[in-house]
Amino acid sequence: MKKKHYGQSYEWGNSVEEMLTDYTHYYFFFHDEFVEVIAKGFWWEKAEQSLLGKPLSMSHPFLKLQIDFTEELNINDARFYIKINPKSHQELLEDVRFCHQTILEVWVKIKGEYFQEGTLKIKENKAVVFSYYQPRFGKEIIIKKGIADLADLENVLLSKP
Fold first, then answer.
1. Residue 60, Cβ neighbours under 10 Å: how many?
2. What CA–CA distance (Å, rounded) separates 108 from 139?
């Protein structure tokens, strides 16, 4: 049914298969109503007052990491600058139940300016956590089950043309 009705409705080249593997069907039940959502994930935050129309909190998982570069990788003739998420692996594993989490960001410096080249993230699919690298342009590359580290990422970047 999903392929028949939604097969041409997705951002990744009309492949409903990705929706079936990467998206979850959520139901949120309230007193007199419910909300039905198909999404890669969701995020919520506790607040004393409404967050409607307010900027995302600095630790929101959909924002770029708000820290300085902590590592550098030199691969072939390229230098990559790395921002590593300060959350512990335990915190990341707790949070990935709701939506993808950034492990680290990869940046390059061109003519004195920094540009994000990609992101190493984790996602959960059917209770299994996967690490994947999402380049700025192109499809995600699954790296391994569990949380990947800088060495795993280095191997991926070494194999890129």
1. 11
2. 19
Q: How many CA atoms lie within 13 A of 142 on its CB side?
A: 10
Residue with the larger pLDDT of the pair 134 and 12: 134
Three-state DSSP state, 38? strand
- For 24-35, the pLDDT digits (tens) are 778 889 989 998
Indicate the pTM of the whole model: 0.75
Give the domain ranges of the chain.
1-56, 71-159
Bridge partners of residue 119, in order along the sequence: 105, 134
SS3 annotation, 93-143? HHHCCCCCEEEEEEEEEECCEEEEEEEEEEEEECCEEEEEEEECCCCCEEE
Q: Dump pLDDT digits (tens) for 60-112.
A: 787 889 889 999 998 888 899 999 999 999 999 999 988 889 999 999 999 99
Q: Three-state DSSP class for 49?
A: coil
Long-range contacts (CB closer than 8 Å, 24 or more residues apart) made by 10-19: 12/139
SS3 83: strand
